[in-house]
Amino acid sequence: MANNQAEYYRGVEAAGSAVAALPTVAAQARATAVHAISDDLLRDTSAVAERACRVGCSHCCHFPVGVTFGEALAVAEVVRASSALTASLHRERAASAALPWAQLVGRACPFLVQGHCAVYAVRPLPCRALASRDANACAAVLHGAKGIEVPRDDEAYWRGLGAAAILAADHPAGSRELRSAVAALLAESSAAAFATAQPTD
Q1: Around Cβ 49, how many Cβ atoms within 10 Å?
Q2: Whether the predicted pLDDT of 8 surpasses 90
Q3: Contact at 8 Å (CB) between 22 and 33?
Q4: Which end of the chain is more exposed for a tag (fewer CB within 10 A), N or C?
């Protein structure tokens, strides 16, 4: 079993080093650098061979996701370049804008297209770090089963949380709900717009 605190600070240290090496303080560049170093960090775990996550498996894409400012800027850039993704986001945002965080469970991410993530290259750290060890458990939880805990790769999970904490420090709002944050940034690509997005719970 992972030592959660140690793994968290391993993520903090790796992300902090990546950010410190940058010649810029731009939030999107910081997110890109942290994602690059995190990908290696999240693959190098003792449970990597036990992961059930596969291409086309999308149970976790039906849960709300928190995103930091730099990550949201990167996703917004990809979405802005695609009229189909932009339309999908606006439809989903209109349908879910009044829903609290807990009621977003079960709603597909607007960037999930035919079972695949259309923004995979710039997906936020929660998506990168949540690695299940049982796809059937993921499906059961998504469909409302009680008393089931999804076994995950805890090393990856806690390292991802640590890395995300470094990026969250880029903005006073910390992190915001993904669809809300990206929609706000499409309307106005600014730190102020990000702050108006729905908070994570």
Answers
A1: 8
A2: yes
A3: yes
A4: N
Going by C-alpha positions, the residue among 20, 26, 35, 29 that lies closest to residue 159 is 35
Rounded-to-integer distance, Cα 146 and Cα 103, Å: 16
Token pair 């729905």 in the structure block, residue: 198
Of 139, 153, 110, nearest in space to 4 by CA: 153
The predicted model scores a pTM of 0.94
Query: Smallest Cα–Cα separation from 12: which of 23, 24, 4?
Result: 4
Both tokens assigned to 108: 């597909």
Angle among Cα 124, 55, 103 to the nearest 5 degrees reads 50
> Hey, which bits of the chain come out as E strands?
66-68, 112-113, 116-117, 175-177
Amino acid identity, position 143: H
The pLDDT tens digits for 127-186 are 999 999 999 999 999 998 898 989 999 999 999 999 999 999 989 999 999 999 999 999
Give the pLDDT mean for 58-84.
Answer: 96
Q: Contact 105/61 with Cβ under 8 angstroms? A: no
Radius of gyration of the chain (CA): 16
**C-alpha distances out from residue 108 to 160, 164, 174, 188, 194, Å:** 22, 23, 23, 24, 22
